[in-house]
C-alpha cells in the first residue's frame, strides 16, 4: 500500500477507534457520571445543569418527548471541528508568526469562528420579540365535527403542537412582567398540514383595520429620539394615539386591567380575536371565535409584584413555564368555540362579528370545548425553535377558513413578509421547527437557505417529463378548498361599516363586569400610566375618553392625577349588561402547579420541613425551600433560595417553618433601614420579615407553625386576618394554603372602594 492509503487508514481508524465507553452521549441524554469541576481531557457528555439552574424537584416521573424531529439534534462526534468537519487541535490561540505575533491572515479557523459569531444575531420580531415556548400535544374531543371537517378536531386524534407566548412591545431582552398584551400562538402539526392559531390573551384589538397597525405600533414603541421607555405603554406617544383613536379604548382598558400583568403564561386565556369560519363535511359553514381556557384558571400579578419581578427576575414567565414543565406539572388549556350562524349580516345579538374591537359575551354564546392542549416538553434550543418558529394566520387546514375581518386580511399578508426579513429568505418552512409533519410536495424551488435536494426535472404543472407528478387532490382527498362565500357587488371605498363607530359600549361592558377590587386595579393602572405622561393635553384627552366609559373610573383617575374630571356628553354612556365571565375573581381553581415558599431557619426541625415539603408535593404544589444560606438542610433537603435571593413575589403562598432570628440567620443583612418594616422586632432577620410583609400585603395565603407568631408581629401580619393560618399541625397548615390558593388570592385583604 502506498503512503496515501496509510493516511486514509489512519483517519478511518481515528474516527472509528474511539472506545464506545468514551463516545460522547447525545445532548440531553441522562448523565450517570458525577459532575466534573476540571475541564475534561477526553470527550464526554455535557455537565448536568448546575443546582441553581435546576427546576423544582419533579412532581411525577413524567416522560420527556421533545416532539422535535430526530434530525433536529445535529452537533455530535467527539472532537471539536470546523464547520467543514475538520478536527481542530486548538481553539484558544490565533495562528501567529511566533508567540508574540503578528497574527497570520491565513488562519481559516480564526476567520470562520469570528465570521460566524459576527452573524449570530438575526433581526428580532418587529412586535412580539420577547417570548417563550413549549412543545405539547392537542387532543380533539370530537365535539367540533358537526361544524368542522378538520381531521385534527376529531375525537381522540392527537396532534403535536408548539406554542409560543410573548409580550408585544418589548425587545428580545426585555422583562417578562411588564404591562402589555401577551401573544398566544399555537402551531398544530396536523396530518393535513400545519394550522396556526395566532392569538392573544386579550380578546379584542386596538384597531379595526390592518392599515392602522404601523400607527399603533409606532405609538406604543419607545420614543424614536431616546429610545425610551422599553416595553412600556406608560408614555406620551401611546396615550396620544389611543386617546385620539378611540376604537383602541376597549383593548386599552383590558391592558390596564389585571389581564395586562398575568401571573404566568400557564394562567392566561387565549383568544383567536377575529371571527373565523368553520366548514363541515357537508360544506355548511359556521362563524366562530376561538378561546383557550387554562385549567389552572386566569390569574394575575398585582402591579407592585410585576414591577419588583421585572428587576429581580426579568425572566419570570419564561422560567415559570420551563420549571413547571420540567417538574412534570404540565400546563393545560381547553380549546373552545363560540358559534354563530353564518348569515350575510355577520352579526350576533347586534354585535358585528367582523369588528375585532368587540367580544360576544359568553353569557350570550357559551364557549363549547372542542379539545385539550397539554404542554409537556421544553424546547431543546431556544434559537432553533422559539426564535425561528414562524407563525401565520393563513396557515389553515381543510375545515377552517377566514372571514372578511379587515384586520385579519392585513395579517394574511404581513406574516409571510416579515419572515423573509427575519429568517433570511423564502425557505423558512424548511427550518426544523416549521416543517409540517404532513408530507410536503411543493414546486417551490431554490432561494436562500434551500435545504431540500429536489429530484426530477419538471417543477411545473402541467408536465409530462416527471410523469405529471405531483397530482392535485380532490375534495375527498383532504384538499383545502376555500369556502365559496358570495361577495356582494359594492363600490370601492376606504370606509368602515357604520357599527364600527361604536367605541364605548364594550369598554363599559368590560368595566361593569369587573369586581370592585379589579376596578381598583384599573384605576391605579391608568393613574400610574398617565402620571408618566408629560403633556397635560394628552392626560385631559384620556379623561374625556374615560368619562364616556364610566364616571367613577374617570373621577378616580382624575383625582389621582390632580385634574378636574370632565363630564361625558349627555347620553354618551350606553346601557349594557355586564358579563360576569370576564371577571377573574369569584371562582375556584385547582391549586396544582402553584409555587410555595417554605421559609426555614437554622432552628427549624428538619423532619417537619421534610413533612411540609412532601405534603405540598402531594397536593400538587411546587415547593421551594428558603434558608439562611445555600447549605442543604439534610442530604435529601436541598435549598432552592437563600435569604439573599428570595423575594416574596416568586411565591403564590408562604409557609413559615421556623422563626428566622437575627444573629443566627442574618448573614449579610446589612440594610438597617429595611428593619423599619419589622416594626421594632430587632430579633428577627429583616429579609424574612420583608418576605412575610410583602406576601401579606399582596393578599397571598400565609401559614406558619407556632413560632411564626413573632414573624407575623414583626411583619405586620394580622394573625386573625382571612387567609392567615397559624398552628402546630403541618398537614393542616398545607391544606389551609391549598384551600386558599383555590381563589388565587385572599381577595378580602385588598381594600376596594371603587364600586
Ligand atoms: Fe401580529 N404580527 N399583527 N397580531 N402577532 C406578528 O409576525 C401583524 C395581530 C400576534 O410568537 C409579526 O412573525 C399585523 C392581532 C402574535 O412568533 C408580524 C397586524 C393578533 C405574534 C405581525 C397584527 C396578533 C404576532 C411579527 C394587524 C392577535 C407572535 C413577527 C393587521 C389575534 C407570533 C411575526 C410568534 C406577530 C403583524 C395584529 C398576534 C409583523 C400587520 C390582531 C401572537 O407579522
From TrEMBL:
This is Catalase. SUPFAM superfamilies: Class I glutamine amidotransferase-like (SSF52317), Heme-dependent catalase-like (SSF56634). The keyword Phosphoprotein does not apply. Residues 18-77 are annotated as: Disordered. Belongs to the catalase family. HPII subfamily. Its cofactor is heme. It is an enzyme of class 1 (oxidoreductase). The lineage of its organism: Bacteria, Bacillati, Actinomycetota, Actinomycetes, Kitasatosporales. Keywords: Heme, Hydrogen peroxide, Iron, Metal-binding, Oxidoreductase, Peroxidase. SMART domains: Catalase. Its EC number is 1.11.1.6. It comes from the Bacteria. It catalyses: 2 H2O2 = O2 + 2 H2O. Decomposes hydrogen peroxide into water and oxygen; serves to protect cells from the toxic effects of hydrogen peroxide. The gene is catB. It holds the Pfam family Catalase. The keyword Transport does not apply. Residues 81-469 form the Catalase core domain.
